[in-house]
């Protein structure tokens, strides 16, 4: 079973989309194993988005992601990393399909509502960056084999 890191960005929190987003992941059948509202420090933002350090948009990206509270989550399920990215939609909301979170709610690429890990390695790295081990809860649900 995979775990992935998902985060409602400051614009999503400001627009009251936290509940809507949790709802979509729950309905899909994933299990919530960790969640918290937090403000990201500059240091954490620069580490999290380290791969974009040389890009022209890096400064703006760090300013945006630290500009207000984010809602960080860990979701678990089969193929959670890929499936979460599919629920989220393409990076640029103008290219994201309707029915995806960015397709339904996103407006511009620099403020695209939500983050999801892009690989298993990123998921492990990001979960460890944002959560302590004792903030992740492992529990069983009494449901059918189709729900994780
Ligand atoms: P994240 O989930 O935020 O990592 O987005 P995603 O993986 O879909 O896309 P990447 B390429 O990782 O974008 C990271 C953030 O940088 C913003 N961005 C990206 C721009 O502002 N301009 C650009 O030209 C590109 C390519 C979008 C992402 N964050 N926000 N907000
Ligand atoms: Mg990314």
From TrEMBL:
GO molecular function, one term: ATP binding
Residues where ATP binds: 9, 57, 85, 91, 102, 112
SUPFAM superfamilies: Nucleoside diphosphate kinase, NDK
Main localization (coarse): cytoplasm
Residue positions where Phosphothreonine is found in the record: 91
Gene Ontology terms describing biological process: CTP biosynthetic process; GTP biosynthetic process; UTP biosynthetic process
Taxonomic superkingdom: Bacteria
Recorded family membership: Belongs to the NDK family.
Name of the molecule in the record: Nucleoside diphosphate kinase
Species the sequence originates in: Oceanobacillus arenosus
Gene name per UniProt: ndk
């Amino acid at each position: 079973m995979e775990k992935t890191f998902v985060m409602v960005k400051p614009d999503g929190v400001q627009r009251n989309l936290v509940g809507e987003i949790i709802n979509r992941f729950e309905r899909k059948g994933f299990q919530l194993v960790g969640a918290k509202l937090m403000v990201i420090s500059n240091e954490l933002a620069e580490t999290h988005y380290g791969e974009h350090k040389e890009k022209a948009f890096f400064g703006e990206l760090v300013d945006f992601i630290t500009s207000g509270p984010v809602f960080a989550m860990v979701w678990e399920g089969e193929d959670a990393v890929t499936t979460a990215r599919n629920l989220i939609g393409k990076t640029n909301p103008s290219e994201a399909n309707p029915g995806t979170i960015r397709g339904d709610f996103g407006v511009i690429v620099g403020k695209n509502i939500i983050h999801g890990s892009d690989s298993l390695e990123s998921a492990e790295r990001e979960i460890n960056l944002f959560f302590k081990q004792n903030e992740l809860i492992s529990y069983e649900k009494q449901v059918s084999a189709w729900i994780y």
